[in-house]
Amino acid sequence: MSKIMDIIECARKNNQKALSEYDSKQVLSVYGIPVVEETMVDDLSGAQAAARDLTYPVVLKACSAEISHKTEKGLIALDLRDDGEVKEAFNRLKSRCSGDVDKFLVQKMIKGERELVMGMTRDQQFGPCVMFGLGGIFTEILEDVSFRVAPITEEDAFEMMEGIRGNRILGGIRGLKAVDKKIMASSLIALGKIGLEQDAIQEIDVNPLVIMDGNPVAVDALVTLR
Question: Which CATH number is correct for 38-108, 3.30.470.20, 3.30.1490.20, 3.40.640.10, 3.30.2130.10?
């Protein structure tokens, strides 16, 4: 847990209200939540080298604690398939960034037909609460989510999954593998633990949580500090 403390302390020194996407997923990873394979880089040559190491196709993102809603701001490039495409995307994203953005994320391109959302929020009355629901760009429109007060058990986590209106999306539909609910439950339990053990964290938003071959993988995450 010292790694998390170091990340938060560094963020505090920089007067950050939130962690960068990279640091947010580092926190999740410490608690055993599956995250996308990725590398943080400073320049084009580093981005191209990271892309080759991860093997194409890849995703390129601007990375900063000051950036949210990267999709709307055009700071994400998807499905890049060679060094030339990485170069074009890097230069495009760099031109759209403000001067204080000097880090970029190169991620393995995760292909999944279903997107979920999960998170943790600190309620004034009940304390840390865990959230689960349908994710992606329609999260705020559909508002199909369920909540439980932390700590939660595996039984609680399964009830949360069954509690959303669109719970059939978790099953084996149209030839897709059913979601591994054991892994999903473990991730929800872990979010509750973070809320209970990491008092400096106010909120966690994992969206999208992509389902790949039945396994949930955190593709994007935001940790907000108290």
Answer: 3.30.1490.20
Q: What does 125-154 look like in DSSP terms, one character per residue? A: TTEEEEEEEE-GGGHHHH--EEEEESS--H
What tens digit of pLDDT does each residue of 166-190 get? 999 999 888 889 999 999 999 999 9
- pTM for the model: 0.93
**Digit-coded pLDDT (tens) for 22-58:** 999 999 999 999 999 999 999 999 999 999 999 999 9
CATH T-level fold of 112-225: D-amino Acid Aminotransferase; Chain A, domain 1 (3.30.470)
